[in-house]
Amino acid sequence: MRSVLAVFLSLSLAAGLVVVAEPPGFSGLGHLPSNLPTNQLQSFAFDVSADGSVVAGNSISGNGFVEAFRWTVDSGMEGLGLGPRGLHSGAASISKDGLAIAGIMQTNGFFEAIRWTQAGGLEVLGFVPDGAYRFSSGKGITRTGEFVVGGSIGQNFSMAGFGWIAPGPMFELKSFRTTSHALDVSDSGTVIVGYGGDHGFEVPLQWVNGLISQISSENGQARGVSADGSFIVGHLHHDQGQGAIEAFLWDGDIELLGHLPGGGEASIAYAVTPDGKAVVGSSDSAGGVRRAFLWTDVDGMRSLEDVLIDDFGLDLTGWTRLDSAQSISDDGTTIVGWGTR
Asked: What is the b/e burial string over 301-331, where b = at least 16 CB atoms within 10 angstroms of the residue's CB?
């Protein structure tokens, strides 16, 4: 088994073009201390602050439990703590100022949404009112960290999108679907994106100032939203969910982003810059292997490995592949995700 490692790379994107403005860099973020053999260690970077200086993700720690982490250039990777009795915790997103993180923690047999702040540490956020089962998970957080969105089991054991504004309590987002799940939120909290479903058919949704609407009637999910809510990314299933999965960019209309060369079965977009000119995600490629991609409005979708090697001359010796690009800084100069080596 190869080691899976969170990655951090520094590039420069201007007007959708990849250019060298200062020396580019690429590095693994390491792992939290663990008793496991090296080849069993794993870490995953999920989000990066607006200026690219702080990263949030998850790493195997201790005796094999997953633990949320916060990484900075100066301090490296620091664990945010485990749940009661040393159970799992996980980070999903970080505020743009890098001072707050949203995620999940295993608490007394249940999984519960959490928020970590530099000032107050970990706090649990509860569950939606009248939930049939105690489960919630934080997925998105606003620029200053005061508003968290995600999903919680509601009535009839169906997932329900939620919002939580400090100091709480959690409230359910209105939906015209049986299930819903909020996955990201704009800086100000006015635009929330996610999906809603009925009987296994999901559609990408947005909540704008509390009003819900579909951004497509096709089966799919909205996974990320730009800083001001103008751009939304995600994926759609063609042929009523039975065909290929393809990444999309929405700015009032859907633009399909394609797949990496040799692929064609699945691509998913996770994050977009504020100007909509750069998108990151993962796509299958030749041989059906999933790889991280960078899409720009000029060059389209390219393997992130090709960008690093061909455009920047970076050395990826020792890395089997870059699996997924999960987030990109506001200025497009920093991308985080994970790869295998």
From this structure: bbbbbebbeebbebeeeebebbbbbbbbbbb
